[in-house]
Structures are given as C-alpha cells and as structure tokens.
Amino acid sequence: MKKIEAIIRHFKLEDVKTALTEQGVLGMTVSEVRGFGRQKGHVEMYRGTEYAVDFVPKVKMEVVVAKLSLPTI
Length: 73
Hints:
Blueprint: E1 2-8, H1 13-22, E2 29-35, E3 42-46, E4 49-53, E5 56-65
Antiparallel strand pairs: 1-5, 2-5, 3-4
C-alpha cells in the first residue's frame, strides 16, 4: 500500500478526482489547507486598504492505493 498526499488548488479538485476515479481509486480524504510556494501570496484590496495575503487557500488530498495501481504522471 502507498499513501499519496497532494496539495492542489481548489479549481483542480474535480479534474484530479475524476482522473483518480477512472483509474480505480475508491476513496480519498480532502482537507482545506493554506500555504504558499512560488507564488509567495498576493495583495488584496478591502475597503480601500491593501492587505498582503501570505497564505493562499489550497486543498490537501490524501489517497491510499495498492502499490502499482496508478500510472506515473
């Protein structure tokens, strides 16, 4: 058995879920997380004031699969 953990953006969740389901994955755990990588956050305006948003909302997906059931992506 292998545990796969992936942190992805919210808008990619359905695409990844569909691809894993097509490969025979029966279940997964999804959690909302915050983090930053190369994008290093961004600046947002709220009521005329700029705020630095250091952590971007993302989704953490955990899947447990048999050792060789998934192709290499």
